[in-house]
Design brief:
The protein is α+β, with helices and mostly antiparallel strands and 138 residues long.
Length: 138
């Protein structure tokens, strides 16, 4: 095998390995976002704040989160269905510390309106994924 072929094969293997690591991270982040959304869907807003990242908690007090989320979700009604549209990895986001993030977008059908949601998950020091941002897309 020539050096060029060896390097090409090595780079291809590295890309596959990197992609599978990202997919594993995405999978864990998506699973954590589903648990977060389950709390939000059932109106457990204070508990959803408890499951947020330390960064999020340092920026948004629990009482403000509960009030803002209650106000934001009320016009939409309850969730009828939700489908993941995609997940994208980031190492940095504007206004946030450097770290590992997965931004997940959903198509969500509510009883009063169809919309989308974006959940940003942040990897914590212990390896868990916690919500660092939640937006209803209009």
């Amino acid at each position: 095998m020539t050096v060029k072929k060896f390097v090409t094969v090595g780079l291809a293997a590295l890309l596959v390995l990197s992609a599978s690591v990202c997919l594993a991270a995405d999978k864990a982040a998506v699973k954590a976002s589903a648990a977060f959304l389950s709390l939000v869907d059932s109106g457990q807003y204070a508990q959803s704040w408890d499951q947020a990242s330390a960064f999020f908690k340092s920026k948004v007090p629990q009482d403000a989160w509960v009030q803002q989320l209650s106000t934001a979700r009320k016009p939409y009604g309850t969730v009828k269905s939700r489908k993941i549209l995609g997940a994208k990895d980031f190492n940095s986001l504007p206004g946030a510390p450097a770290g590992q993030y997965v931004v997940i977008e959903y198509a969500t059908a509510f009883t009063q309106n169809d919309s989308g949601e974006r959940v940003t998950m942040m990897r914590q020091a212990d390896g868990s994924w916690r919500m660092a941002g939640y937006f209803i897309l209009q």
